[in-house]
Every structure is written in structure tokens, then in C-alpha cells.
Design a protein that fits this description.
Elements: E1 10-14, E2 20-25, E3 31-38, H1 52-59, H2 69-77, E4 84-87, E5 92-99, H3 103-115, H4 121-138, H5 142-155, H6 169-172, H7 177-187, E6 194-199, H8 203-216, E7 242-247, E8 253-261, H9 270-282, H10 287-294, E9 302-308, E10 313-322, H11 326-343, H12 347-360, H13 368-380, H14 386-389, H15 391-396, H16 400-410, E11 418-423, H17 425-432, E12 438-442
Helix pairs in contact: 1-7, 9-12, 9-16, 10-11, 11-16
């Protein structure tokens, strides 16, 4: 019996404009899903305008050239739908799901919102105030501060991935309508984009509907624009563990991140990587969860994650603990990660990780939304549909030697790692005394 996943009937077509069309047939519930992805992710934020990709996509449903924001909301809700608008490092994506008989209306609504934003002065000002207030509020949540610091320090200041998608308050405060208009005109292009639809009909029928609808909207799609190509360089290895403490006055707990360069989404060693990481700290029965949570009770939350973007990635350990047990948690984490890097997972841990990942994967393809996102991402990332179809068999086939071979390349504790602590600075410095060089940064630097 094969472990492979049978993808539903689908059709893919590349238009001369550079836009990829994807149609997937999913029988069962009479639903229609549409998802438009364009190359307008956070890595495209212009210098000094961190957060502009997210800001622009948030404004799309705040009024179009045809109707004000309230009418856009009424249009979406009249179909019993919710319009999602998200930004990753690589893409901006708009999506909605409606009953099948509303497919034409849904496509019109999605294209109007995506291609005809008004960027009204009042809406931009309101969005700017909301975003600045949210960024300020985020400083009250240590885990959010730790995540923002992790991205910035992990990638380094000059890297296109080296800022959170929400941006920096100092940049957001400068946003004006012309910034959003310019970003939209240059990034919301057909070239590099993908339009996916999921419905009950035959994939070729779905493609025909999509082609016809796009022809009607051709005049509204911005023409090609010159864009400066992004420069992606490999993340340089560091020379030794160093720590950054982000001072949060009166904090009784400390958020902890240990960050090192990881692997890109396109790595041919993807299966080995996710299996080895799951055995280390990616599952509830993993090595680090047992050592830190179960055996010592140092923290309720312990994990390692592979942050895999298309062209670079990070390997991250995450946890939190009381100020008094900060050093103990870090020592245990570094010790266990060093052992895992040197010898890899045990045979039992490897088997648990393989079965866990293989069992979990099909659930991520169940809904119309998840199916469209997974297949679209596989195409856009250049890893192909085979990545999805054969994911389970590849994960189950990972050998002990393969997992042990890649463990050292994934460990957040390897040379050059950065330790990030968000907590009370004096207590954190005392806890880290003698471990590595320590730099103290202020909370406001990460707003």
C-alpha cells in the first residue's frame, strides 16, 4: 500500500503575461474557492518602508474605485464570505470561499478588491493610526517582541527577510497614499503571480471560467513595471554564541529564542530536515520537550522550528521560563541540542517523528482553502506538485543515517548561534554571566 497522497484532478496554465492559472476539482460540499497570489510579500518592502506590503494588503478592502469600504464589506458579506488578505515574506494573497452558485460574483469581488483599490487619504490615515497603535501594543507581549527580534537578528540588517511583516513603527509613521499606490503598481503584477480556483467542476471548465473573467478585467490590471531585483546572499556563520537581552522592566519571566541560519524551502533535504527537527523539538514527545518540560518542569512551552522561506531560512529554539530558572533552561537546551547535533535522533525518536509527520500531513489538504494554498505554494516555491504527492512516502523513508547527517546542520545551538532573551535586563545578565558576550537592547527598538 502506497503512502503517497493522491492530489485531486487539476489543471495548470501559464499565460503569456506570466500569470499562472491553477484549477483544482474538489467534490463534496458545493463550494467555490478563489485565491490570488502576487509577488508582493514583505521581502519586497522598499528600504525605509518596512511593513508596506502588509499595510498595502490591509488597505485593499478599505474601499475601491467603485465603492467605499462599508460597501466592500457589504459586498463580501452578502455572499456569506470572509475575504482573507495575508502577506508572507514572498507573496500577498487574497482569498475567499463562497457557495458554488456565487462563483462569478466572488471572482468579480476578488478582482475588484485586488486591482482597483482607492487608497483614500482618510482610510490610509486611519490604517496608519491603527497599525502604529498595534505595534506599540505588541511591546506588552514578550513573545511577540521575541519573534520580531528573532527575525531581525537572525537574518541581519541588510537581508530582505530581516524585518517582521508588520514593519517598524518608525517606518509605518511615514506611510502615505502614494507609498501604497506605488507599491501596488509595481508589485501587484501578473508576472510571477498565481490565480487558483477550487470547485466541483472539471478543472478545464474552471480554467475557462477564470480565463473569461480575467479577460474582462484585463484593463484594470496594472501594466508591467520596472523593479529592482532583490539581492539574496547566504546567511554568514557566526563565530560563537552571543546574546541579546531585550529589556522589559518588571518582567517576572523571560522569553528565550536561540537562532541560527537554517535551510530554504527549496532544499532537496526537506524531508530529512523536518523529521530531524520533529525529533529534536517539533513534536510533543520530542527530546527537548521531555528534557525541559517533562523531566524538569522548567517551562510549559518548548519547541524548535524551521522557518523556511523560499531563499533562506532560520533554525529556532523557543521557550520561556521564570527569571530564576533562565540559566538552567538555556543550559539544558544547549546541552541537549549539542547531543542531538552530534549523534542525531535515536531510532525510536526517528520512528515517532516519521509517523507523526506522515499522519498529520493529509489533514493539511482537507479544506478548499488549505488545498489551494498548499498547491499554489508548491508551484510558486518551485518545489513542484511531487513534493505534495510524495511527501508522506519521503518522510517515512528517511533513514537514521540521513537524520543524523542533517542534525548538525539544523541545530540552533551550532557555532554562530544567537541567544535572544526578552525579560528584565539585570536578572537576565546575571543569569547569563560567564556563558557568552551579552548586549542589552531596549524594548522600543523592536516596535
Amino acid at each position: 500500500m502506497t503512502a503517497d497522497v493522491a492530489l485531486p484532478p487539476l489543471a495548470i496554465e501559464k499565460l503569456p503575461s506570466g500569470l499562472t492559472l491553477l484549477a483544482l476539482q474538489k467534490r463534496g460540499l458545493p463550494l467555490f474557492h478563489a485565491r490570488l497570489s502576487v509577488p508582493a510579500g514583505a521581502c519586497e518592502d522598499p528600504r525605509g518602508k518596512a511593513g508596506l506590503a502588509q499595510f498595502t494588503v490591509d488597505l485593499l478592502r478599505r474601499g475601491t474605485r467603485r465603492r467605499p469600504a462599508q460597501d466592500v464589506d457589504d459586498l463580501i458579506e452578502s455572499m456569506g464570505a470572509q475575504l482573507s488578505a495575508d502577506v508572507s515574506m514572498e507573496e500577498a494573497a487574497l482569498a475567499l470561499t463562497v457557495p458554488s452558485d456565487l462563483a462569478q460574483r466572488a471572482l468579480d469581488a476578488l478582482l475588484e478588491v485586488a486591482l482597483e483599490p482607492a487608497f483614500d487619504e482618510h482610510e490610509v490615515s486611519s490604517a496608519r493610526r491603527r497599525t502604529v497603535a498595534a505595534l506599540q501594543s505588541d511591546l506588552d507581549e514578550p513573545s511577540t517582541v521575541a519573534s520580531r527580534a528573532m527575525v531581525t537578528l537572525g537574518y541581519g540588517l541588510a537581508h530582505p527577510y530581516a524585518h517582521p511583516a508588520q514593519g517598524w513603527r518608525r517606518d509605518v509613521e511615514t506611510f502615505r497614499p502614494e507609498d501604497a499606490r506605488g507599491f501596488h503598481a509595481t508589485r501587484y503584477q501578473q508576472s510571477g503571480g498565481l490565480f487558483a480556483v477550487v470547485g466541483q467542476e472539471d478543472p478545464q471548465q474552471l480554467l475557462a471560467v477564470l480565463r473569461e473573467k480575467l479577460a474582462q478585467w484585463h484593463a484594470s490590471w496594472p501594466g508591467p513595471a520596472q523593479r529592482q531585483p532583490l539581492q539574496f546572499s547566504a546567511l554568514p556563520p557566526g563565530e560563537g554564541l552571543r546574546a541579546v537581552v531585550v529589556h522589559k522592566p518588571d518582567a517576572t519571566q523571560a522569553q528565550v529564542r536561540i537562532v541560527a541560519p537554517g535551510l530554504p524551502r527549496t532544499t532537496p533535504r526537506y524531508a530529512e530536515a523536518v523529521v530531524a527537527n520533529t525529533a529534536l523539538g517539533g513534536g510533543f514527545t520530542s527530546l527537548l520537550v521531555d528534557a525541559i518540560r517533562v523531566d524538569r518542569g522548567l517551562s510549559y512551552s518548548v519547541s524548535t522550528r524551521l522557518h523556511m522561506n523560499r531563499r533562506a531560512g532560520l533554525s529556532v529554539f523557543s521557550s520561556f521560563t521564570k527569571n530564576e530558572t533562565l540559566r538552567q533552561l538555556i543550559d539544558v537546551a544547549l546541552e541537549k541540542m549539542a547531543v542531538h547535533a552530534a549523534s542525531g535522533p535515536s531510532e525510536d525518536a526517528l520512528d515517532k517523528a516519521r509517523r507523526y509527520l506522515a499522519g498529520l500531513f493529509p489533514l493539511g489538504l482537507e479544506s478548499h482553502e488549505a488545498l489551494a494554498e498548499q498547491v499554489a505554494d508548491a508551484i510558486l516555491d518551485g518545489i513542484g506538485l511531487d513534493h505534495l504527492a510524495k511527501y508522506r512516502s519521503r518522510v517515512l523513508a528517511v533513514t537514521l543515517d540521513q537524520a543524523r547527517s542533517i542534525a548538525a546542520d539544523l541545530s540552533p545551538s551550532r557555532p554562530g548561534a544567537q541567544l535572544i532573551v526578552v525579560g528584565e535586563a539585570d536578572m537576565a545578565r546575571r543569569g547569563l554571566d560567564g556563558l557568552c558576550p551579552v548586549e542589552v537592547r531596549q524594548l522600543e527598538e523592536f516596535a
